[in-house]
User: Which sequence fits this backbone?
C-alpha cells in the first residue's frame, strides 16, 4: 500500500497526522509507504521551534513516514531551508511531486 | 466507472450528496459504483435523527451508493455504532479504506 | 504527466492557479497535460468581467491548460453559458469528468 497525503492549510495538520497515525496502527508499520507533501502556508509547520505538531511528525518519521516541503511555498512564506526540521525533504515544486507519486501508484488523500 | 467520495467536514455533506446525485443522473445508476467514506467530524451526519441529509443518503443508498464510517472517528465523536443509520457500514480506519479503494481503481473526489 | 485540478470553492482559485503555474515552470510546458474542473460556486470565476483571475487563466490556457465548467453548477449559480470566458469548456457534470480523467491516468489534486 502506498499513500500520499496533501496538506496545504496550516489548520489541517492535526487531522492529517491523526489520519496517518490511524492508518499505520490499522495496517501495521511496514505494510504501507506514506509520504506527506506540504505546500502553501502548511509548510510553516515544518519550521523548527514551531509547536508540538513537529514532535508528532518526528515520531511518524521514525516509523518511516516521509515529510516533503515545496520550495516555492517556503520562498513565499520567507522560510529559509536551514530553519526546517532535519527530517524534512525539500522538492522544487510540491505539485510535481504529488503528480509523480500518483503516477507511481500512490493513493491521494486530502485531509 | 468507480468513484470514492471522501467527506471529513460536516459542512461538506450537502455539496457531496449533490455531486453524487448529479453523477448518477449524468451516467445512469448502474453505470457507476459509488462509495462515500466519512471520517473526522463528518461521521456525525450518520447518526439517526440528525437531519434531512440522512433522508437523502437513504435515497442514494437505495440506488446502490455505499456509506462508510471510520470507527476511529466515531469513537472520537462519542457516537455508539448502534445509533447510526442502518445503511452505514463501519470500517476500522477510514483512511485505509480510501487507500485500498484507490488501489482497486476508484477515482478519488474530495467535495 | 497528466494532472487534474478540482476547484469547488471560489477562494481556492488563487492557490490553484499558482499551483499550476509552478507545475508548468517546474516540468516545462508540453511535458504535462493539465485540466481544471470547476464545480460548485467556483464556476463564478469563469464569468467574463469578474476579475484578474480570468487574465491568469487566459495565460495558462495559452500554454495548453484546459478549463472546464460543470453545467449543473452554472445552472445553480444562474450563470448563462454565453457569459463565460471563451476558453471555458462546459460539461454536463463536473464529477463525471473528474472520474473519467482519473480513469485515464490523470493525477487528482485538490488545491
Assistant:
Amino acid at each position: 500500500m502506498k499513500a500520499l497525503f496533501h496538506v496545504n492549510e496550516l489548520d489541517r495538520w492535526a487531522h492529517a497526522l491523526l489520519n496517518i497515525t490511524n492508518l499505520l496502527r490499522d495496517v501495521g508499520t511496514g505494510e504501507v509507504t506514506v509520504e506527506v507533501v506540504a505546500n502553501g502556508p502548511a509548510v510553516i509547520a515544518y519550521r523548527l521551534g514551531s509547536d508540538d505538531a513537529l514532535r508528532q511528525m518526528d515520531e511518524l518519521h521514525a516509523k518511516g513516514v516521509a515529510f516533503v516541503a515545496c520550495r516555492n511555498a517556503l520562498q513565499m512564506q520567507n522560510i529559509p531551508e536551514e530553519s526546517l526540521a532535519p527530517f524534512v525533504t525539500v522538492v522544487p515544486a510540491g505539485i510535481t511531486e504529488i503528480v509523480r507519486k500518483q503516477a507511481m501508484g500512490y493513493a491521494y488523500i486530502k485531509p
